[in-house]
From TrEMBL:
It comes from the Bacteria. This is FAD-dependent oxidoreductase. It comes from Caballeronia mineralivorans PML1(12). Residues 36-388 form the FAD dependent oxidoreductase domain. GO terms for cellular component: cytoplasm. The keyword Lyase does not apply. Keywords: Oxidoreductase. One of its GO terms (molecular function) is oxidoreductase activity.
């Protein structure tokens, strides 16, 4: 591994690259004494729900324990999905064909919803529909991706192209993969600019946003709620929990069902002129078929490489993670060996027992949680859906509101299960690495 002085840029920061353009916001405005709806969590889900409910005439207060937007939403890769994860993971195991069809249709609807929202509200989000290349780590994975491409085409109507190894340099300037598939209906946005635009939208619709107001207890008072926060109490007609990967022990029902898992990313300094065109000619979103996958994309202005993966079985510091991520990035693109890192950060994704997001109501408290690392479009969409449900505007919450919300083994014993689960993933990738070694 390279010496730190060569690896880290002089301006290196332990913060998301995205925050340079649009940092999270401190908002210490006084809490209102009473509102129709309190929303716990100020990510895409909470803000989207707030905008919808306020637009419908409800008085809404969004409360966040930290700064507004300091959670997963502004820490993500900003890849905008039309629902492939449902087919490309084993989330669909045990789901009836009928429900699977509706889950996929709603995932596609979330992609369309996000595009429409950004266009209709003129949100400054740097959205670019570029497509996403899924690279095959082994020849066997290539065959699996080819089959999954067929399934996607059939179930969601997306355009999935098979890309052979001989053709793949049009997608990724590397021989690391054994071909893959390209899905056209996929894009990327600027996570923090999009969040800032959603904040402005929620406020324009009439919602108030409050940072540093951790919700410590939710007390039932007859048909209403008293919400106890670090900054005082609010009386609320309804409560929505939108805490995703930052779900703590506020309500045991949720902490037993959602497992926060850290995900890490780095950003490089601007690349030498012409290099991005070689490494990622279409400026696409790229990920792969490994369990502990690489996910990478250019910054929206096309100058820097952003790269994410899980660096270790256990949670580690961002600086140590950055060294490992840089080494992984160089496996994919040896030409980036001498390019320095300017930013390293982590955020928490919310894993669930069945790998599906869930929306609904429990003991009078509404929730939208558990996007399993696929939340830019989905949590925006589910926020709006759950708002319409709790206001009584939609009779049913949709496919993500059906079925039981199963216990998550990890959520129940997170300190033990995460390392074990991660270790199994790593073993699987090691085995596949040996398969690759034998082929090369
Ligand atoms: C590193 C990383 C990369 C990702 N990459 C992608 C990607 O490329 N594409 C994609 O689609 N998705 C991706 N995701 C997933 C996705 O972007 C987010 O998880 C999603 O935006 C979650 O939105 P949210 O509104 O549900 O929650 P968040 O944005 O995480 O917000 C939850 C908020 O709840 C607050 N909170 C928690 N408890 C309390 C409390 N008691 N009181 C008050 N506030 C509380 C937290 O402070 C936090 O701000 C990624 C996630 C991470 C972390």
């Amino acid at each position: 591994m390279r010496a730190d002085a060569l690896l880290f840029h002089d301006d290196f920061r332990l913060a998301p690259y995205w925050w340079d353009a649009a940092p999270p916001e401190t908002s210490r405005v006084a809490l209102p004494p009473s509102v129709d709806l309190v929303i716990v969590g100020s990510g895409y889900c909470g803000l989207s729900a707030a905008a919808e409910a306020a637009r419908q005439g409800a008085s809404v207060a969004v409360l966040d324990a930290a700064e507004i937007g300091a959670g997963g939403s502004t820490r993500s890769g900003g890849m905008v999905s039309s629902g492939q994860k449902l087919a490309l993971t084993d989330a669909i195991r045990g789901v009836s064909a009928e429900r699977l069809g509706r889950l996929m249709a709603e995932s596609t609807a979330s992609f369309d919803y996000l595009k429409r929202l950004i266009a209709d509200e003129a949100l400054d989000a740097d959205l670019q529909i570029t497509g996403r290349f899924f690279g095959a780590f082994t020849p066997g994975h290539f065959e699996r991706l080819r089959r999954q491409g067929d399934l996607l085409r059939e179930k969601t109507g997306v355009t999935a192209h098979v890309v052979t190894r001989a053709e793949q340099r049009v997608m990724v300037g590397s021989d690391y993969y054994y071909g893959g598939i390209l899905v056209d209906e996929y894009g990327g946005l600027h996570t923090a600019k999009y969040h800032r635009a959603l904040r402005e939208l929620a406020r324009r619709c009439g919602a108030s946003l409050h940072s540093h107001a951790a919700v410590e207890r939710i007390e039932r008072t007859g048909t209403r709620f008293r919400v106890h926060t670090a900054r005082g109490k609010i009386d609320a007609g309804q409560v929505l929990v939108a805490t995703n990967g930052y779900t703590g022990r506020l309500l045991p029902f949720f902490s037993r069902r959602v497992l926060p898992v850290a995900s890490y990313q780095i950003a490089t300094e601007p690349l030498p002129p012409g290099l991005m065109e070689v490494l990622n000619p279409g400026r696409r979103m790229i990920s792969d078929s490994k369990r502990n996958l690489f996910y990478t994309r250019p910054s929206p202005d096309g100058t820097r490489m952003l790269f994410g993966s899980r660096p270790s079985f256990r949670e580690i510091g961002e600086r140590a993670a950055a060294r490992i991520l840089h080494a992984k990035m160089v496996q994919l693109w040896p030409a980036l060996r001498d390019v320095r890192i300017t930013h390293a950060w982590k955020g928490y994704v919310a894993m669930t027992g069945d790998k599906l997001a869930h929306i609904g109501e429990r003991d009078g408290v509404f929730y939208a949680l558990g996007c399993n690392g696929n939340g830019v479009a989905l949590m925006t969409y589910l926020g709006q859906r759950i708002a319409r449900t709790l206001l009584g505007l939609d009779a049913v919450p949709g496919a993500f509101g059906e079925g039981p919300f199963p216990l998550s083994p990890g959520g129940m014993a997170s300190t033990l299960i995460v390392p074990v689960g991660a270790a199994l993933y790593q073993l699987d990738d090691c085995w596949n690495g040996r398969v690759r070694g034998a082929l090369s």
